[in-house]
Write a structure and sequence with these properties.
Helix content is about 0%, strand content about 50%. The chain is mainly beta.
Length: about 100
């Protein structure tokens, strides 16, 4: 079994249903904003790696929420990794859980 990778080189990205189960590497040297849409389903999950120098920041859209026990929203540094999973969604209010090598 090999991980399914998706390489992102831009400074903005919005997660999609097809990203579930994948490892996404973000390699831009500038700051990167990753939007977490409120429409993805419970059980959606992915791993994210900050492969470049650009800090990766996660932002929940619309009625969604990004939950972390210490209110972190970013990958802590280059080569850091985190996991996102949707723990609940009533159709337009995805609740993302962020875990891993993260910071504020």
């Amino acid at each position: 079994f090999y991980a399914k990778f998706r390489d992102e080189v831009g400074t903005t990205y919005t997660m999609v249903a097809g990203d579930t189960g994948k490892t996404i590497t973000f390699t831009n040297g500038s700051a990167i904003t990753v939007t977490l849409p409120d429409s993805l389903l419970k059980g959606w999950e992915c791993e994210c790696i900050m492969g470049g120098a650009g800090v990766v920041t996660f932002s929940a859209a619309g009625g969604g929420a990004l939950n972390h026990r210490q209110s972190h929203t970013k990958i802590a540094g280059q080569h850091g990794a985190c996991r996102l999973v949707i723990t609940a969604n009533a159709g337009s209010a995805a609740q993302y859980n962020l875990a891993g090598d993260t910071t504020t």
